[in-house]
Write a structure and sequence with these properties.
Its EC number is 3.6.1.12. Its cofactor is Mg(2+). The chain is mainly alpha-helical. The protein is about 55% helix and about 0% strand. The chain is built from 7 helices and 2 strands. Helix 2 packs across helix 4.
């Protein structure tokens, strides 16, 4: 465990990392580094006892609610948020970060490699929603191609043309 974390030390590290990323031309986030920072943060405060999967999930849901409140009553918002004030965008970034950090922590506590799981899910979605059938449409696959029944090789999902609402039978 490193030295105790203070707001000043966190700010110094964050500013330093931002400058490093800018210098390297990198805008990416390393999930492993976030996971380690969150683990250190919790350990320094003796919060590991409270960071159970259930508690983290409920905290994550709460943060998603706070994120939703930002958009509540705004109607559709154009990409890039051109009409938003900088203060609103900063608040949005903070709430998005809360969601990300709880998600990273939850995946760590559950022993899930979030990066690998995300890439696997993208691969499964590419099979489940082929571009040739879905391109340019927001309809569920079952409604796009009513004559097709698709089953994965491991039976983790099943889409039936008989299911008009587009719901799947099995896990997502």
């Amino acid at each position: 465990m490193g030295s105790p974390t203070t707001p000043e030390s966190v700010r110094t590290v964050v500013v330093s990392k931002l400058k490093e990323n800018e210098a390297e031309g990198s805008k990416g986030v390393n999930l492993e580094e976030l996971k380690n920072k969150m683990a250190d943060f919790a350990e320094e405060r003796d919060w590991d006892l409270f960071h159970t999967p259930r508690n983290l999930l409920l905290a994550l849901v709460g943060e998603v609610g706070e994120l939703s409140e930002i958009f509540q009553w705004k109607g559709e918002v154009p990409r890039g948020l051109p009409d938003w004030e900088e203060k609103e965008k900063q608040h949005l970034g903070e709430e998005l970060s809360d969601v990300l950090l709880y998600l990273v922590r939850l995946s760590d506590i559950c022993g899930i490699d979030l990066g690998k799981a995300a890439f696997r899910k993208l691969e499964l979605n590419a099979i489940k929603y082929p571009a040739s059938l879905c391109k340019g449409s927001s309809k569920k696959l079952a409604l796009l191609n009513k004559s097709t029944t698709t089953t994965s090789t491991n039976s983790s999902f099943y889409i039936s043309s008989d299911n008009e609402n587009g719901a799947t039978d099995g896990g997502e």
